[in-house]
Design a protein that fits this description.
The complex is a heterodimer of chains A (93) and B (187).
Chain A: H1 2-20, H2 29-54, H3 63-92
Chain B: H1 22-41, H2 43-57, H3 82-92, H4 94-97, E1 101-107, E2 112-117, E3 123-128, E4 134-139, H5 141-150, H6 159-185
Helix pairs in contact in B: 1-6, 2-5
The chains are: A mainly alpha (93), B alpha+beta (187).
Chain lengths: 93, 187
Amino acid sequence: MGRIALLVGLFVFPAALLWLGHRMRTRSAVQRGAFWGGVAGHSTGIVVALGALEYPPVVWSGGIREWLAFWVLLAGGATGSAIGAARARVKRD
Amino acid sequence: MKEVRSERRTWPRDNTHAPLTPRTRTVARWMFHGHLWLGVMTTALILVISITGILLNHKRSLGLMPDVPNTPVGTLESALPLAELVRLAALAAPEAAAAGVDRLDVRPGDALIKVRFDDALVTEATLDLNSGRVLHVGERNDVFLEKLHSGEIFGDGWTLLSDAGAVGLIILIITGYWLWLFPRSRQ
C-alpha cells in the first residue's frame, strides 16, 4: 500500500496539480485555492520525504520514518489542497 | 547589371518570417507540453536520484563508508583461510552475522578483508588478512544509498523507477534544448 502511495505522490498528484493549474483564470476560487494549497503541501512533502528517505542512511524498519518516506508526498499534497480549498471557500462565503 | 542583395541585418529585426507549417506547430506544442509535464512529474524522483548521487560521490569524506587504514604484516600466501576470517568476523558482530554473509571483499594490497553481513543495517567487519585482527566493525551506509539511488531498496523490479527518472531527464534535455534553439533558428 505504501508503495502505491509513493507512486501516486511521485507522479499522479503532480500531474493532477498540473491539470488543475491549466487555464487558471477560468478556474473557480476554490479550485485556485486547492491548486496553491496542493503546490505548497506537495513541495513541503518533497523536502520532508527527502529527509525521511535519506536520514539516517540505513534501511527503515517501520515507524514514523517509513510512513513519511512513503506517504508524505501524497498526504502533504492532499492536506495542502484541502486546506487551500477550505480557505478559499471561507473567504468566498 | 546584376543586382547585389544586401546581407546586412536590419534593426529593429525584420519579423516577416514565413508562417509556421501545421507540422512545425504540432512539434512545438509537443515539445512544450512534454517538457512541462515531464518536468513537474519527475521533480521529486530526480531530486532523490541527484541527492543520493552527490552523497555517494563523497561517501568517504562524509563518513558513509568506513576508511580503515592497515599496514600489511604478511603476504597473501600467509593469509588465514577465508572460513576462519569469516568466523572471526562473526564473533565481532554476532547479531549481524545471524543474518548470514552477503559478500567478502579481499584487498591483498592493504592485507585486509571486508566481511559484509546480510542484515538490514548492512554491517561490515574489516579484518587483517594475516593476523585475523578485527580492525573495524560498522554500518555500510553507502550501500543503503546505492540501493535508494537505484530504486532497489523498494523491492525487485523497482530499478524501473530509477530508469523512469533517467529517461525523463533525457527527454527533458532534448525538449529543453529544442525549446531554446528552435526560436533562434528562425531569427
